[in-house]
Specification:
The complex is a heterodimer of chains A (298) and B (332). With 298 residues, chain A is mainly α. In chain A, 70% of the residues lie in helices and 3% in strands. In chain A, strands 1-2 form a two-stranded antiparallel ribbon. The radius of gyration of chain A is 19 Å and the shape is globular. Chain A starts with a helix and ends in a 12-residue tail after the last helix. Chain B has helices spanning 3-35, 43-58, 73-95, 100-120, 122-125, 145-170, 172-182, 184-189, 194-220, 231-244, 249-270, 275-299, and strands at residues 131-132, 222-223. The N and C termini of chain B lie far apart (57 Å). Chain B has a domain at 11-228. The chains are: A mainly alpha (298), B mainly alpha (332). At the A-B interface, helix 4, helix 9 and helix 11 of A face helix 4, helix 10 and helix 12 of B.
Chain lengths: 298, 332
Amino acid sequence: MIEFINFYLIPGLVLGCMYALGAIGISMLFGILRFAHFAHGDVITLGAYFALLFVTTLGFPVLLALPVAMVLTAIVSIGLDRAFYKPFRNSPTIYLVIASFGVALMVRSLVQLAWGVKVESYAAGTFSKPIIFFDTLRIADKHMWIAGLTIVVVVALHYFLSRSKLGKAMRAMADEPDLAQVSGIPTEKVVRATWIIGGGLAATAGVFLGMDSQLHTNMGWDLLLPIFAAAILGGIGSPYGAIAGGLVIGMAEELSSYPWIGDAPLLSPGYKTGVAFALMVALLIWRPSGLFRGRTFT
Amino acid sequence: MSDLVLGLMLYGVSLLTMAGIYSVLAIGLNIQWGYTGLFNAGIAGFFAVGAYVSAILTSSPSTSFIGGLDWPFPAGLLAAMVVAGAIGYLVGRLCIRLRADYLAIATIGVAEILRLILKNEIWATNGPRGISNIPRPFEDLSQPWSQLAFLGVVAFVVLIAYLLAERAGKSPWGRVMRSIRDNEAAAAAIGKDVVGFRLQGFVIGAALMGLGGALTAHFFKFIGPEATEPLLTTFLVWVMLIIGGSGNNRGAMLGALVVWTLWSATELLTSQLPPDWAVRATFLRIFLIGLGLQIVLQRYSKGLLPERPPNSRTDDMVPSVDPAQEKAPPAE
């Protein structure tokens, strides 16, 4: 049992935190701009490498590099929107989708150009020794940080969305765009705020992923499909659903290789990522509104 | 013939061969996206299935993967199309009703699952090491004739695919496809089986993608998981179709030729650089391809060769104000 918690449940929850952070961005962007942002994975990669830049050149500890990376990634996100998405605001969304494919390629190749394709890591050994609870429950302190900071970010987001004027405007625009516009909500300001939040959270997911394992230039792209799965599971357009979706998908991936029946893993670990893809395709087909009966954009 | 001339000629022939194979893929995508409006972002999956099916059926027996049936080359191609088409049918049956970007997400997911299976089922596919020694027709001839003969085979396949796609596009079938793409509700209202037609478009496109995969496997005499990376298949084919002009088969072929020539010629240039720079320059090429796509999308969204409606007498088709004059028979 304790092995189950240490080696399956906790890694599942940690993975779920990263998925949730990415999925909130995807989901909010879909809610406001109504397109699937295929470059989100590579924005996550970019955020992770921004933090690496400050860790390696200025000797920042990772947790201090994180806010800097969030700001830089948010700025880049706004720039990407200006250059590549804004011209298509009034075009069919498919142009935005194709453009975001191109942006994904461009961002990833720039990261590869700047940092090369070697596997990198933040100052190794910073987060190494697990903290042991009740003699047997082992939690690595990097996992505590990841889970703790995810909770902080999510609570902050909740307060922003439910209390601030801009946050309320964002929810209004996601729910009822025409009504929001006639009631005088500044559309472009809301769009900009969405990119700031999406970019910042993407950087957080990237930095956490780098802290948990390593950095490589495909890390974000590999995260993209599970993140879509999480956003769809939670009902696309709903940031709260995305958090739940991220946790469910992360756990499902890790728990799929637990020996539920007999001694062999239920599913060979090679297919771990396939679990998220299969869940996502199944959801799209049978429950496109998500588990929590959100909205579908048809 | 001097070595340099022979080398350049072989380079040109192999460039044209790859452009031809990409033309098949781009025509397949044109039937799905250009004609039918289906956003298939999982080209890599159908490509991989076709490549592996043909490789397994036409290779000599081996202990490292299943099959090895020594089938003739054309039978391998045909089987690749049938299996890729059949998988396309299954995927289509499940996903065809999804809205454009949902379909894109679902097809990427399916493609990644297919690639995971090909990578993990080592008993069947030799896993990450891939299948080598796939036979290539005319490989016993001396160079350059062997390469030229294979180029001839590819050119023949492209010609057949082009003629069939063109014929289909101009036929009543193609008109129904376009009407569904442009106004699904109207097509359904005049009694067209929207789901059925979209499914047909998806299956035909998937079969062509399988064919492209099979040709690639025979051309390189090798197929492995690396060769089915979405960058070289899905993305590049999309860029080709958008730049060439979606909805236009000649545009698809021109896009394949232009983009592949740029891709391959810049590789020739960057390979002259010192090794460290050569690796980095590869990413600059990818960046430029992405930027090119953005420029075409923003400035010339119809591509190099824009789509032309099948009926050139467009003047007759301007809708008249008076409904009483609207007695022209429907296009079929």
